[in-house]
Design a protein that fits this description.
The complex is a heterodimer of chains A (236) and B (254). Chain A is built from nine helices and ten strands. Chain A is of the alpha/beta class and 236 residues long. In chain A, helix 4 runs antiparallel to helix 5. The longest helix of chain A has 17 residues. With 254 residues, chain B is an all-alpha fold. Chain B contains eight helices and two strands; from the N terminus they run H-H-H-H-H-E-E-H-H-H. Classes of the chains: A alpha/beta (236), B mainly alpha (254).
Chain lengths: 236, 254
């Protein structure tokens, strides 16, 4: 179980995450939604232990995130982060060296599926190829929690279908899968729960099926209801 | 820890290989100059080898500092801080890898220098004459009125002094970079601020070292002040290391 309690992160005068309390449970695929700068990435990085909170707590199985949680939490950043001297094979070896749950066999099979060769240099990959590589190496871990930040960014429709299929293949009843994206329609087909973040604050945490039944709206409709006013204001 | 050290080596491998390749070319040129009677080639290659021996070791040390700066201030930091390793391990692997690299580079250039001097004297004046020349030189060098003794102990203490002083410089630089990264978090002038912190910390360390060695009587033995200086440098390095790892653990966001 991944949980944040009154989690806050302040960068200078900007409150990127503002007292967010939320609890993510195994067996669900969560969509983390919100416009640019709403705090999705900062929240995820705090869950991955890369950013230290200003106040509040980020807990994994009731303990603060840290070395132990990193063994079980697989995080995929939206930015490329591999060492520039690496070829794709080195990336797999690196993960294999540091993560006990990493499967080289699964990695190679995902690479083949994504049409990536092991001898390709990471620094020469296109953004689409880089996105596929990040997915392949992250999903090759048999982690308890997967957090994928903007996994569909900068890639074409067919590759997006492939990535969606890969993600869902390894989502299981005992795992937490958290995806952030602007592409709300893409997320609708994948997620069963949604977290709406606005200006660093958690606006709503909903079960999508219940929302459809009780409110009669889709995730995309709800997104428009929550953020529409802000976007009109910004455009004006 | 070994795995982390392996990747620290990989990060700096290209520079090390380049230094090695240039040294190999200079060495071949020296041998051609020596045995082919090309005096200009020999002289130029000797100058190149002396330059490489001096700056090669310096570059190995400096690159480790540059690598930490990159690890703190670019997205590549995720590669380190996503892994289930403590800051102590991450930092320790950097210090150990760099110290070992400096030690190996120093030993390599020392061995190469000894070999080249031996070859040159053997070729020109014979080994017996080489030994006599070395003894003459040593007789003329004295410290505090005592003739300099070159033996295994003196050599070991010299190496240990250089290494501990390098480790202190390294850990001071690491602390400066981490303080700056924790405070400025990738903002502009981060590198400049690190340098200012380094100068301040280095000034403090020099003061402590001077204070510690000022009470040691210099007339007793050359190695005693050196030993005190080494021990103080090591203690300061450990303090720097602990403070750096604590800042990384508690305050650093990448």
């Amino acid at each position: 179980m991944l949980e944040s309690k009154e989690l806050t992160k302040v960068f200078g005068s900007v409150r990127a995450v503002d007292h967010v309390s939320v609890r993510l449970e195994p067996g669900h695929v969560y969509a983390l939604l919100g416009p640019n700068g709403s705090g999705k990435t900062t929240w995820m990085k705090m869950a991955a232990g890369l950013i230290k909170p200003t106040s509040g707590q980020m807990l994994y199985n009731d303990a603060p995130v840290g070395i132990e949680s990193r063994r079980e939490v697989a995080y995929m950043s939206t930015e490329p982060y591999f060492y520039t001297w690496m070829i794709i094979k080195d990336v797999g070896r690196y993960y294999d060296d540091f993560f006990e749950d990493f499967s080289m066999e699964r990695y190679q099979s995902l690479l083949a599926r994504m049409e990536l060769r092991e001898d390709m240099k990471t620094k020469t990959l296109s953004s689409g190829m880089m996105a596929k590589l990040k997915i392949a190496v992250t999903m090759a871990r048999d982690a308890k929690v997967y957090m994928l930040d903007e996994p569909f960014n900068g890639i074409d429709l067919l590759a997006r279908d492939e990535i969606r299929a890969c993600i869902l293949q390894f989502a299981a009843y005992n795992k937490i899968l958290l995806l952030s994206s602007h592409l709300v329609e893409e997320m609708e087909a994948v997620a069963d729960r949604a977290l709406f973040i606005k200006q660093g604050q958690l606006v709503e945490s909903v079960d999508l099926e219940t929302m459809r039944m009780t409110m009669g709206v889709s995730m995309a409709d709800r997104y428009r209801q929550i953020y529409g006013h802000t976007e009109v204001q910004n455009n004006a | 820890m070994l795995k982390l050290m392996k990747y620290e080596f990989r990060k700096t491998q290209a520079t090390k290989l380049m230094i090695l390749a240039i040294t190999a070319i200079a060495e071949v040129a020296f041998l051609i100059g020596l045995y082919g009677k090309h005096d200009t080639t020999a002289a130029l290659s000797i100058a190149a080898l002396v330059f490489l021996a001096t700056f090669g070791i310096l570059i190995v040390g400096l690159e480790s500092i540059v690598t930490l700066h990159r690890d703190m201030n670019t997205k590549q930091s995720y590669m380190l801080f996503m892994t289930p390793n403590s800051s102590y391990k991450i930092l320790g692997s950097k210090v150990l890898e760099c110290s070992l690299s400096i030690l190996i580079a120093g030993a390599f250039f020392f061995a190469l220098g000894t070999l080249d001097i031996t070859l040159a004297f053997a070729k020109e004046v014979g080994l017996k004459s080489l030994w006599e020349t070395i003894q003459d030189v040593l007789r003329n060098i004295s410290i505090n009125g005592r003739p300099l003794e070159i033996n295994a102990r003196a050599l070991a203490s010299f190496t240990f002094t250089l290494l501990t002083s390098w480790i202190l410089t390294l850990t001071t630089a690491y602390l400066s970079i981490v303080i700056s990264a924790a405070l400025l978090n990738g903002k502009r002038f981060n590198g400049f601020v690190s340098f200012i912190f380094f100068l301040l910390l280095n000034w403090g360390c020099t003061k402590v070292l001077r204070l510690a060695t000022s009470h040691v009587p210099t007339s007793t033995s050359v190695s005693i002040p050196l030993l005190v200086s080494c021990c103080v440098a090591l203690v300061l390095s450990v303090i720097m290391y602990i403070i750096t790892a604590q800042i990384m653990e508690r305050k650093l966001s990448v």
